Amino acid sequence: MLEKFVRPRQVQEAMGWSRSTLYEKISRGLFPRPVKLEACGRAVGWPEREVTAYQKSRIEARGALATNSVADKGGRK
């Protein structure tokens, strides 16, 4: 099955980020680098599975933070 590519504007919309935030996160290694869609072209995109995996990791991190936060509050007096 062919992989669907997500274009920059779609990523921005899905993540709620501006263009500059998207590319800042890429440059800092916090978000996957895009794939050139044509060897000589400027068009880029991300495999949909990579964007979905990033979103899932953020959701899981939220759950881990909430769990740690509750444990910290319960353990302190």
Nearest-integer average pLDDT: 90
Overall tally of structural domains: 1
Which overall shape is indicated by the principal axes computed on the Cα atoms? elongated
Catalogue the unreliable spans: none
Give the count of helical stretches: 3
- The SS-based structural class is mainly alpha
Order of helices and strands: EHHEEH
Largest sheet: 3 strands, antiparallel
> In order across it, which strands form the biggest sheet?
1-3-2
Rounded Rg: 17 Å
* Separation, N- and C-terminal Cα atoms: 56 Å
Q: How many beta-strand elements? A: 3
Helix content: 55-70%
How much beta, percentage-wise?
5-15%
Summarize, please.
The protein is built from three helices and three strands, in the order E-H-H-E-E-H. It is mainly alpha-helical and 77 residues long. The chain has one domain (5-75).
What does this molecule look like?
With 77 residues, the chain is mostly helical. The protein has one domain (5-75). It has helices at 8-15, 19-27, 48-75; strands at 5-6, 35-36, 44-47. Strands 1-3-2 form a three-stranded antiparallel beta sheet. The longest helix has 28 residues, at 48-75.
